[in-house]
Design goal:
With 286 residues, the protein is mainly α. It contains 13 helices and no strands. It has 2 domains: 43 residues; 209 residues, Orthogonal Bundle (MetI-like fold).
């Protein structure tokens, strides 16, 4: 081996080593940022409040189920869980039913202005919509009627799910060649039939992604339920607020409640992970 060949091989090895080092440093950073908080949440949910508020690195204290026992004794978890599924599930279904045709129309009719307006609605902070929604809820009596209150909360959560559904579906519709629809038009398909029979099977991974992400965002959304919900329609996410008082907080109970709140979305993400990755990568390639 000549000196030049040895130097080139050595430089290539150093370059590969630096690249691997950067990759592993990225993995370590991702673990610190994303995984450690989750592990801390799980660990703290099984510790006493006095231990949680003490030293973070005190590993000697025994674990306990007292936080979960108190949580289920104080609150009707199954009842609030049902409310969360009603609000998040219905707003997700409506967001998909309205968002998929809207995204299709935006792409095929080139309605860039309409797409930009939906993006503005998603980017705007929820507090902007809160006061008008609250006044409207009071005027129609939604604060005294369970059915109306559920409808009000679902409509409020559409502000979250509908723009998400539209903007997640736009790249998938842009990938479908127009020639396929032109062939369907020659066969006499109406616009609705073209959407249902031709487009939807081709963008099914995108629909799965939109359903999953919209549900997670709606499930975790806190503001509308806190301000517009009543004791009969309160979702599970608002329960965690009860562990924070003026000047004090039950961090053990808060961690236990947060763990239970996050479980449905976490399980759904793990179950649908394969379809989620396939849909996200499919919508990113043109």
């Amino acid at each position: 081996m000549t000196h030049d060949t040895y130097s080139a091989a050595r430089q290539a090895g150093l370059h590969k080593g630096r690249r691997l080092l950067m990759i592993y440093l990225g993995y370590i950073l991702a673990i610190i940022v994303f995984v450690l908080p989750i592990l801390f949440l799980i660990w703290s949910a099984f510790r006493r409040n006095v231990d949680v508020t003490g030293s973070v690195f005190s590993f000697g204290q025994p674990l306990t189920l007292d936080n979960f026992v108190e949580l289920f004794q104080r609150f009707k978890i199954a009842y609030y869980l049902r409310n969360s599924f009603i609000i998040a599930g219905t707003s997700t279904v409506l967001g998909i039913l309205l968002g998929v045709p809207a995204a299709y129309a935006i792409v095929r009719r080139q309605l860039a202005a309409a797409g930009f307006i939906t993006l503005l609605a998603r980017m705007a902070p929820g507090i902007i919509f809160l006061i008008p929604l609250f006044q409207f809820a009071v005027n129609i009596g939604a604060m005294r009627n369970v059915v109306l209150n559920f409808m009000m909360l679902i409509a409020a959560h559409l502000i979250v799910t509908l723009p998400l559904s539209i903007w997640l579906m736009i790249p998938f519709f842009e990938e479908v060649p127009v020639a396929l629809e032109e062939s369907a038009m020659i066969d006499g398909c109406s616009p609705l039939r073209r959407l249902v029979a031709v487009m939807l099977p081709l963008v099914a991974p995108g629909v799965a992604v939109a359903i999953l992400i919209s549900f997670i965002f709606s499930w975790n959304y806190f503001l509308f339920a806190l301000a517009l919900g009543t004791s009969n329609t309160m979702p599970l996410t608002v329960i965690a607020f009860n562990f924070i008082g003026e000047g004090s907080a039950d961090f053990g109970g808060l961690m236990a409640a947060s763990l239970i709140i996050s479980l449905p979305a976490l399980v759904l993400s793990l179950v649908a992970q394969r379809w989620l990755v396939r849909g996200l990568t499919g919508g990113a390639v043109k």
